[in-house]
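Sample intake sheet
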Amino acid sequence: MATPVDWKSIAKPVSAHPEFGPDTLKADRRKLAKFLDKQVELVGSPDQKGRRSFRIVGDNAAFSIPYNKGALPLLDDETEIVVPSKDLAGVFGAIKAEVLMGKFDEALKAINSGETLAAKPRRGRKPKAAAGS
């Protein structure tokens, strides 16, 4: 007969092993991929309602990829770039592929932690003073 294992003496919490924790970057990648799919759809349907992260002027399109109160750095630290408008849907598709491969993971981590210029707070109204102040 096998000796009973004292499982409490060998067990450790999942938090002590990051390889078993939740993969928040995987969720971030999926969210960005879905956003990029929507942008491709909007490029192909100019009359469709939806929030666009691009603007087309003449033969060029400027765009950024907003994320978590920041924007994804696309070229070095640049968060907004310009491409020929005829190539915009293809560029969104190529960026989506790189996002899903994890090539933007470091940028996502930095944006999520607020460590980048891309994650700086947007200008807006000042917060209201607390009641009774």
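Comment: The chain is about 35% helix and 15% strand. The mean pLDDT is 85.
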